[in-house]
Design goal:
Number of domains: 2
Pfam families: Acetyltransf_1
CATH topology of the largest domain: Aminopeptidase
GO molecular function: acyltransferase activity, transferring groups other than amino-acyl groups
Keywords: Acyltransferase, Transferase
Radius of gyration: 21 Å
Protein name: GCN5-related N-acetyltransferase
Organism: Ktedonobacter racemifer DSM 44963
Number of strands: 12
Structural class: alpha+beta
Strand order of the largest sheet: 1-2-3-4-5-12-6-11-10-9-8-7
Amino acid sequence: MNIQQLPHEYRARPLTVEDAAEVTRLCNLEELATQGKTEFTEGDAIRFMSMPGLDLEQNSLALLDDQGHMVGAVVLYHVLHIQFEPNLFVDPAMYASGIADYLLTWVEERSRALMSNAESDLRVTMGIGTNVKRTPICQAFERHGFRVIRHALRMGIALDAQPAVASWPEEVRLTTFEPGMERAIFNAEMEFFQDHWGFMPRDYEEWRHFNTAFDELDPSLYFLVKVGEDIVAMALCRHEHGEGWVHTLGVRRSWRRKGLALALLQQAFGEFYRRGIQHASLYVDGQSLTGATKLYARAGMHVMQQSAQYEKELRAGKELRTQTLAV
């Protein structure tokens, strides 16, 4: 579909943060269609739409019907103008309307315009992750030349009995987040995740926006393992969407295979259980370079949901993202 072929009954405009409720509504409709329940909240939408560096005026588009109701939207993020990450929202009732095709065409044209800001020898891609049950949207990605390169898994565990108690090596100590630790935690996370497929360093202010600069933060669920004052492992957890979430779990390479990741999971599960939280979840790369899926299965977690990671190459060149485990 050509970018000019917007059906006459729709109009397009950029999103604003004030559209968070409508974006949430679209996301919830898709969640109900694919998983039978809603999790995404208006607070989540506001957080994503107000992230540092995001220019909604230039890098978002909403489609409205003749009654002014939003029927589709896309928000385009990027990392260094070489990794473009569009978030696509479409009312499931409109899947057959061509709206997804229009939005994908628009967001690719916008990405191609922005990639001129990247160094000319670097590989540039668009990447989109989506629930595999979102079949019409997956088909739209494929029509536009995207291919599946990876799968992400949502793994979970029922906390209906006291979890195993964490066991720690003698030389480490467990602590939790305190104000002033932000930069140290960020630096540690960037180090730990260099061995994860697709890794690229992130902007500190963006990281802070999503990890520490919000009212709902519970610092007692940000578990840090230290040797002296050095962070060697972490599990950044939250209670949201009705369950416990392990958002970030990482261990320094020299401290892996010493039981720290399993102990951190057990610490998190134990704290969730103590608070009466009955279920915990996390997301993981289904082909994890570090074998994370095996660890999570050993901790009692099982696969609940699968998402496909689609990619389209916009320009060939030198790849900056982690592809293999460095020796």
